[in-house]
Design brief:
Layout (H helix, E strand, L loop, with lengths): L12 H13 L4 H10 L2 H4 L4 H12 L4 H10 L6 H16 L4 H17 L5 H8 L3 H10 L15 H22 L7
Helix pairs in contact: 4-6, 6-7
Length: 188
């Protein structure tokens, strides 16, 4: 972590230690924690771990259990990057904005975190206008077919790079949907 610290910034060492202790309490063993911090030092340094707590709190609030959130962090450590955190936040805001029940939000977050982290979604209103449906109808569509969520990826000129990532994400989502229709079990 030393090389990632700056003399020009202040840090809350208490919060940094609390973040590391929390990760340890939820099952992140010393070697995994070390690897995680080497790969993503910003996890505890940027905002002194605030990003981690905010994201953890949002996921917990929509019904994910502590062990599920921990598993998401371990399986998808990239989700703690600035871009992924923003995309996850937008997805949560989108799903909450269309008044989706927390049980369905939880299911989507657990099943599709990798794609969620790589996609920047449109606002719910924009998606509703493009489909000519109400927010309630959009919620019903996504409850039945959660992978349709990724068809609402933002495609502004400013985000050409994320558009390329979203195309890969859409292909992944389409392949996953196809395999599910064939009867394959998700995440198998």
């Amino acid at each position: 972590l030393e090389q990632d610290l700056s003399d020009r910034k202040t840090y809350s060492w208490r919060r940094i230690l609390e973040t590391m202790e929390f990760l340890e309490k939820v099952g992140c063993k010393e070697e995994k924690l070390s690897s995680l911090l080497k790969t993503y030092p910003a996890l505890v340094i940027e905002g002194s771990g605030k990003r981690f707590y905010v994201l953890f709190g949002r996921l917990f609030k929509v019904g994910l259990q502590v062990n599920e959130i921990y598993r998401l962090f371990i399986d998808n450590p990239e989700m703690l990057s600035d871009k992924c955190v923003m995309n996850i936040r937008k997805t949560l805001d989108f799903l909450i904005g269309i008044r989706m029940e927390t049980q369905f939000i939880r299911k989507i977050m657990l099943s599709h975190m990798e794609v969620i982290g790589s996609c920047s979604l449109q606002a719910p209103r924009t998606a509703c206008v493009s489909l000519n449906v109400s927010e309630d109808e959009l919620c019903k569509i996504l409850t039945k077919e959660p992978l349709r969520l990724f068809s609402f990826v933002s495609t502004t000129k400013k985000k050409r790079k994320s558009k390329l990532l979203s195309e890969d994400s859409r292909k992944y989502a389409e392949k996953t949907a196809f395999l599910l229709r064939l009867g394959y079990v998700e995440n198998s």
